[in-house]
Amino acid sequence: MTDEDEPSPEFLKGFNHGYQLSKHEPELLNELLQAQTDNSPSDYNRAMQ
To answer: Which of 11, 15, 23, 45 is the most exposed place for a label (fewest CB within 10 A)?
Structure first.
């Protein structure tokens, strides 16, 4: 993504969910991130990291 691109709605959703989980349920977020084994993660998954 370049500086001029708008983030996709899925990226924004993943970012927001990742932020909330990091503040309130960091252990759950770590488990979710470790469980992701896709070679090409979606925008949602990349944003959660």
So the answer is: 23
- Residue 27: CB atoms within 10 Å: 8
Encode burial over 8-17: b for 16+ CB neighbours within 10 A, e otherwise: eeebeebbee
Domain count, the chain: 1
Residues in the chain: 49
pLDDT digits (tens, 9 = 90+) for 9-47: 999 999 999 999 999 999 999 998 888 766 667 888 888
Structural domain span for residue 30 = 9-35+42-48
First-last CA distance in the chain: 16
**Inside any domain, residue 17:** yes
With tokens 């070679």, the residue in question is 39
